[in-house]
Amino acid sequence: MSMQELLRIDNLHAWYGESHVLHGVNLTVNEGEVVSLLGRNGAGRTTTLRAIMGLTGRRTGTLRIAGQESIRMAPHRIARLGVGYCPEERGIFASLSAQENLLLPPPVGQGGMSVAEIYDMFPNLKERASSPGTRLSGGEQQMLAVARILRTGARLLLLDEISEGLAPVIVQKLAETIRTLKSRGYTIVLVEQNFRFAAPLADRFYIMEHGKIVREFAQHELRENTAMLQEYLGV
């Protein structure tokens, strides 16, 4: 695995209107890593992903993507640094077919997956290509939300609660997908409430509380941090 830094965040503060949500977040993500942000609801994990994309209100601090400072960039410029964001609400357009949803986002970089490659990875989507977005199951919608950013050429993927509310067989499929993407050199930041899903996938973990990073540990330190995880997450 390359240890080249792809994402570096220093002293990141973020606001929604007057509400100060992030209070000096510091983290790094290396190229080719899977990193998981853990924490209770309201800890600031989703806001961290949104802040990386420039989707919060005011932001201060340093936020470097592939060496470029992005703290003052608009979201569409941040996307063109090769960042793909899969929000918790999925954002599937009900009036468009599955394939139209898939083709909607513009390319942001070179080397995006072809539709054929995506259908090879997600055979369900090929079967449902002409189905309206509203007719897809929750699992199919989630697959589509992930697939949509793979076509754009994004290499840094921000995935927010992609396993939430899905059947175990779909969760297993999404875990296989993340392993495949990692093997192909993608860099992934996972926000997950489902610790059992995130635990075997991530190379490193950051725990958030009250809008800050409070602990960091690596995959090989997972067992020795069980008591600490109980304290912060109740897992």
Rg (CA only): 17 Å
What is the strand tally? 10
Shape: globular
Question: Approximately how much beta-strand content do the residues carry?
Answer: 25-35%
What's the SSE pattern?
Answer: EEEHEEHEHHHHEHEHEEH
What is the CATH homology-level superfamily? P-loop containing nucleotide triphosphate hydrolases
Uncertain runs are none
Return the structural class.
alpha/beta
The appropriate CATH architecture is 3-Layer(aba) Sandwich
Please report the distance between the alpha carbons of the first and last residues: 29 Å
Q: In CATH, what is the class?
A: Alpha Beta
In DSSP terms (H or I, runs of 4 or more residues), the helix count works out at 9
The average pLDDT is 92
Explain what this protein looks like in three dimensions.
It is a single chain. With about 240 residues, the chain is α/β, with parallel strands linked by helices. The chain has one domain: Rossmann fold. About 30% of the residues lie in helices and about 30% in strands. It is built from nine helices and ten strands. The chain has helices at about 45-50, 75-80, 100-105, 115-120, 125, 140-150, 170-185, 195-200, 225-235, and strands at about 5-15, 20-30, 35-40, 60-65, 70, 85, 155-160, 185-190, 205-210, 210-220. A six-stranded mixed beta sheet has the order 6-7-8-3-9-10, with helices on both faces. Strand 1 and strand 2 (about 20-30) form a beta hairpin. The radius of gyration is 17 Å and the shape is globular. It starts with a strand and ends with a helix. The mean pLDDT is about 90.
